[in-house]
Amino acid sequence: MKVLVSTSTFGEFDETPLRKLKQNGFEVVVNPYGRKLQPQESIGLMRDIDGIIAGTEPLNSDILKRANRLKVISRLGVGLDNVDLTAAKQLGIHVASTPAAPTEAVAELTLGLMIVLARRVVEADHAIRNGSWKPLMGVLLTGKTLGIVGLGRIGKRVAELAQPLSMSILAYEPFADGPFVTKYQIGLVSLSELFSQADIVSLHIPLLPETRGLVSRELFALMKPTALLINTCRGEVVDEAALLQAVESNRLAGAALDVYNEEPYRGPMKQNSRIILSAHMGSYAKEARIQMEHEAVENLIRLLTAAAEPSRV
To answer: Is 234 a catalytic residue?
Structure first.
């Protein structure tokens, strides 16, 4: 059987997962472009492919229908919003992801973005490189109120990492883990209460029809002018135009984004020094990446083997 590895950096730090595919008899096709695949590139590469280790490239109904032999999508990462799950089910394509592996990496990046945003480190770096030496006044995280939107694996880990900073924690989570909430003294509140009370809002929700554009002009209007926004989940949950307007009008003190409505990001937020931009690299910690690749290969092998015996899937 033939498998496609679409993620451009797969095996960069550990070749074991690639070797395991070959040792199990798979012919491996790798992404030749060194970047996220465009739809037509995916269509071309996925002809006569039995399984794919997928990144964040779109795998919509049209693409999946043209992949005439595809049996398994093993997503390298957490979210499955780039995969048309309804079409996959109709076509008999089995889908898996690696939800546990990126947790620590994304949570640590979230905390790091909070710190550099609160202390204006990136602004200072740019100023020095442009010939200006002026210490910038920031704020402490200690004692502030952190609002976490979504208490899944990553949201929970962010709450744990915030404990040494003595932050008060609010969360919006319709299906909260009661014992966890009690243990860390997290206040469960409505979305509007969270945005109006938090000093830092951190987003950790999946992209669903009901979360697309959730963080809107109306929610920004509720925030303190000193508040900060962090987004390391999915870009499409934030109205980027409304965010930029909120920062430019001093309705919001700043934001840090790792994800965007369209990637690579080339929009106007690049011109605002109070918005920190990183390149969708939440899971790009070496240890997490290696674990994700191992898990993605295990999922692919398991599901392709089971697909050969339908009663086992």
So the answer is: yes
